């Protein structure tokens, strides 16, 4: 028996940039579609190619309900959700490890993940000031 996982996700073009919320049953394939601009509309128009948040569900209906809930939220609530889950704004589609490894125990693996920050030039403490 195959168990499917469904995902609700948020993508962006850059840190604190435009946000798009969607759901899918294959998050890797869906991200490749976004990266290659296969969807006409909002995500293509704004170049949304960085996965910054996701949540798994056991059914398509649950993922769809969560997507609709988040789409009805104001922007700050969405940013808070991302910040709580992914405070470094890593592109989760590209990081080799998630959740992040302990930087003290696994410094090389941790540094490999940091190479996939959405805006690598920004320091963590600058995120609150860029609007």
Structural account:
- It is a single chain.
- The chain has one domain.
- 34% of the residues lie in helices and 16% in strands.
- It has helices at 27-35, 42-45, 60-71, 75-85, 107-114; strands spanning 6-12, 19-24, 50-57.
- The chain has a three-stranded antiparallel sheet, with helices on both faces.
- Mean pLDDT is 91; it is low at 123-131.
Keywords:
three-stranded antiparallel beta sheet; alpha+beta; 131 residues; 3 strands
Task: Spell out the blueprint of helices and strands.
Elements: E1 6-12, E2 19-24, H1 27-35, H2 42-45, E3 50-57, H3 60-71, H4 75-85, H5 107-114
Antiparallel strand pairs: 1-2, 1-3
- How many E strands? 3
- The share of residues in helices is 25-40%
Radius of gyration of CA atoms, rounded to a whole number = 15 Å
Based on CA inertia axes, which overall geometry fits?
globular
Intertermini distance: 48 Å
Structural class: alpha+beta
Largest sheet: 3 strands, antiparallel
Instruction: Give, in order, the helices and strands.
Output: EEHHEHHH
Number of helices: 5
């Amino acid at each position: 028996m195959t168990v499917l996982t469904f995902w609700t996700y948020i993508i962006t073009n850059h840190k604190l940039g435009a946000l798009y919320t969607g759901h899918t049953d294959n998050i890797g394939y869906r991200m490749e579609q976004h990266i290659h601009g296969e969807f006409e509309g909002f995500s293509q128009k704004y170049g949304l190619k960085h996965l910054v948040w996701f949540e798994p569900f056991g059914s398509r209906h649950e993922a769809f309900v969560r997507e609709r809930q988040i789409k009805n939220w104001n922007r700050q609530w969405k940013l808070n959700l991302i910040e709580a889950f992914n405070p470094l704004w890593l592109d989760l589609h590209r990081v080799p490890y998630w959740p992040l490894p302990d930087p003290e125990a696994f410094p090389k693996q941790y540094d490999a993940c940091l190479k996939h920050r959405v805006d690598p030039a920004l320091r963590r403490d600058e995120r609150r000031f860029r609007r």
